Amino acid sequence: MAKALLAPDDRSFMTLSVTSRGLVLPDPGHALLLGDTVSEEEALSDLAQRIRLARNPTIFPGPLVLWKKTPDSAQMAAAVKRLSVVSGMTLIPMADYRPKYPKINAETEINPSHPNLTIWHNKIDLCLFVGVHCHYANIALKIIRGGTDCFTVALCSYAGDDEAHLTIRDLTPQTVLRLAKRLEK
């Protein structure tokens, strides 16, 4: 049943949201893995294994990691960099994805930081979002899930993101470092 929640509906043009199919976000200390609630440790173990097996795993750090000026964000940026170094994952920053009004030049506004286009063109088979605003991550993950075979991961500072194949909630720099340590072994 869980895998069916994450598969696109063949009868619709758009990928249905997983919440419309009954998926519920996990409680604190837990994560979602392919629609099932699991412990955070189980999710980290599964994620470490998937990163090891992926051909082109990529981290997409967003503005909350790149630009936010708090002690926590500086620690998170250091932890994400450590994860990248230890795992060999590519880093593709999503520095600023807000539209510029009143005129939008699609070539410069969309292409450099639009994750689903980047995933399609670079054959990314595992993407990890961290520090991406919830509203942007939600729609981008839905597009990726519906249009690619990329395994999506959302490391979220809040309640998690139900559109990702794997989401870990209440993210701290220590959680990212625990994942890095699993990959070092």
Word description of this protein:
The protein has a domain at 45-98 and 115-171: TPP-binding domain (Rossmann fold). Helix 2 (40-53) crosses helix 8 (173-184) and helix 4 (71-87) packs parallel to helix 8 (173-184). It has eight helices and seven strands; from the N terminus they run αββαβααβααβαββα. 33% of the residues are buried. By secondary structure, the chain is α/β, with parallel strands linked by helices.
Spell out the blueprint of helices and strands.
Elements lengths: L1 H5 L23 E4 L2 E4 H14 L3 E5 L1 H4 L4 H17 L2 E2 L14 H4 L5 H8 L3 E5 L3 H14 L3 E5 L10 E3 L4 H12 L1
Parallel strand pairs: 3-4, 3-5, 5-6, 6-7
Antiparallel strand pairs: 1-2, 1-7
Query: Tally of extended strands?
Result: 7
- Give the helices and strands as they follow along the chain: HEEHEHHEHHEHEEH
CATH homology group of the domain at 45-98 and 115-171: TPP-binding domain
Q: Any idea what the radius of gyration is?
A: 16 Å
Mean pLDDT score, rounded? 81
Stretches where pLDDT is under 50 for at least 5 consecutive residues are none
Which strand-content bin applies to the residues?
15-25%
Largest sheet: 7 strands, mixed
> What's the shape?
globular
- According to CATH, what is the topology of the domain at 45-98 and 115-171? Rossmann fold
CATH architecture of the domain at 45-98 and 115-171: 3-Layer(aba) Sandwich
What are the key terms here?
42% helix; globular; Rossmann fold; 185 residues; seven-stranded mixed beta sheet; alpha/beta
Question: Briefly, what is this?
Answer:
With 185 residues, the protein is an alpha/beta fold. Helices cover 42% and strands 15% of the residues. The radius of gyration is 16 Å and the shape is globular.
